[in-house]
Amino acid sequence: MDICSVQFSSDLFTVHGNKFIQEMSTLQGNTSDNCAFGQVYDDAADVGFVVVSKQSGIGAVFVHAYTERDREGEIVAWKLIPTQDTLRRLPSLIGWTAIVLND
C-alpha cells in the first residue's frame, strides 16, 4: 500500500516527452521539511514522491529506481518510476519517469 506523504503539483515539473523533470533544490523548496523524497510504503524502505495532476487532482506515486553518477562519483540525477499500483490505476503513465536533477 502506498503511503507517501511528499507531494508535488504536476505544474512544478517540466514535461519533456514522457518525463517529468525538475531540480532537487526546487523540489526541496516546496516541502515543509526540505525533503524531496518520502517513504513510499509502510513496510519497505523505498523512497519517492507523489505527482498530483493540476488538471485532475489525481496523484501518481513515483519510486526511486536509479541514481545516475558522473565519472567522479557525484550524483547527477535520480530516476523515479511509477509504482505498480499507480500503473494499474493510471495505465497512461506506462513508460513515464520522473527525473530529479542534482543542482
Q: What can be said about this structure in brief?
A:
With 103 residues, this protein is mostly beta strands. The chain contains 2 helices and 8 strands.
Using brief descriptors, characterize the structure shown.
eight-stranded mixed sheet; 8 strands; globular
Question: How many E-type strands?
Answer: 8
Q: How many domain modules?
A: 1
Report the span from N to C terminus. 32 Å
Principal-axis shape:
globular
Query: Mind telling me the C-alpha Rg?
Result: 13 Å
Oligomer: single chain
Number of DSSP helical runs: 2
Report the mean per-residue pLDDT as an integer. Answer: 91
Q: What is the makeup of the main sheet?
A: 8 strands, mixed
Which range does the strand content fall in? 35-45%
Descriptive account of the structure:
The protein is mainly beta. The chain has one domain (7-101). 11% of the residues lie in helices and 42% in strands. It is built from two helices and eight strands; from the N terminus they run E-E-E-H-E-E-E-E-H-E. It has helices at residues 24-28, 84-89, and strands spanning 7-9, 14-16, 19-23, 38-39, 47-52, 59-69, 75-82, 97-101. Strands 1, 2, 3, 4, 5, 6, 7 and 8 form an eight-stranded mixed beta sheet that branches. A hairpin with a 2-residue loop joins strand 2 (14-16) and strand 3. The protein starts with 6 loop residues before the first strand and ends with a strand.
